[in-house]
User: Fold this.
Amino acid sequence: TIEKAKENLGMYQRRTILFIDEIHRFNKSQQDALLPAVEDGTVVMVGATTENPYFEVNAPLVSRSRIFQLKRLDESAIVRLLERALTDEKKGLGEKNIEIEENGLLHLAQLSNGDARSALNSLELAVLTTPENKEGKIVLDQNIIEDSIQKRVIHYDKDGHQHYDNISAFIKSIRGSDPDAALYWMAKMLWAGEDPKFIARRIIIAASEDVGNANPNALTVALNAFHAVEIIGLPEARIVLSQAVTYLASSPKSNASYKAINQALSDVREKRTYEVPAHLRDAHYSGAKEFGHGEGYKYPHSYDNHYVKQSYLPKELEDRVYYQPEEIGEEIHLKQYLEETKYKHKG
Assistant:
């Protein structure tokens, strides 16, 4: 095809339009092979895909393209398509005597969820599987329409951008303390066939990242939910997931521990690393004392309230504070304890 396009351009100064349906199915090498012809103008490439091109098409090809996003049809547009199919005698169902109950087409459009192909296929199935009545009419009521579509179409690709968009909305709804929104996005994922264990794993992460020590029990609930999902599976697993999601979304939130580990990792990654202070080193093996290991260590349980002032960070980082508990939920008690111990004796 490319060679023929070069010939047309060289001999006749005529550019070739190359249309590639489902371009995301081309592997990286195949997409790379198109690049020179696109760059030098040998072909005008038009690629169609149901996937997000930023995920599935090579970046060099995307950067040389103009992206047009075709959105789902609204209900009124689908109703017009269905009406046209019912009256078109050549390409549609116009030759048949069809009667649809009031709002039947609108109901079908709603069930198709913006997918014209699904709506047309469902209409055809309903017509072909419904016998004529005594008057020679094919009467489609709401029950027949619902049976023909079987299951509401959900636009969801488990490996593409819709997967990431939905899980993002789900997590942000939990973080934002909106149990209703979190349930909606989870229901959409479950209906579309998402692995319930994947959802359960994300709930565990949210329990620590977004709820944290404001409600430490959230992690226990999340872990128990994951184990329950493994044991019972769907459809009952939806109940367990719902309990965990509503609990997390309705809990007080703190990301103090999440920020703390990120700050500590940042120091380890970007700054000089320091040796363990001598008094904190392991002193249980033979010869450790000769190196001064453990010398000067104070055993907290030997002191009042099981606390004694002592440095646990390298000397160079003694003033570093990573964990800063919030005044919310259960975490307020942790903050109070630290203020009465570590922070009170600091300095």
